[in-house]
Amino acid sequence: MRSAPDKFAKREYVAPARPAVPLHRMPSSLSDDPRAPVDGKRILVLDDEFLIGLDIQHVLESAGASVVYVSTANDAAAAIESGPPFDVAVLDVLLGRDHRSSLGVAEALARHNTPFVFLTGMSGDGIHTKQFPDAPVLIKPYDSEALIAALQTAMRR
Q: What is the pTM of this model?
């Protein structure tokens, strides 16, 4: 007699080293260029959506960057205060189910003179564009070339 599967059995999930289906593909023109705009840069990535964060990390590391990926504003603040300085950052505007803002992280980066790019799924102006009018804003979905270009723009300002 077969026993019924235990619906409460412990299951383990091992995340792949990179997303199985990349959300954005690294253009060959960037991946083949060792002098890509982010090559050698230390970049903070704050995004509460795990697969999107991993995809951004993969894109940037493929272009030669060193990436610190975090999913909460608290972890981002700790990384800013405790580690070596970042060259640039990527910030998702709204974090979590309660739609908390990453503005506190943007303020901490501004105090450290670190440029950043906002990511958002909503078009139009928001408090982030009013408070940081010079920060580039990428509207989701975007491609890898747009991300790299926005980071390059932020680092020039």
A: 0.77
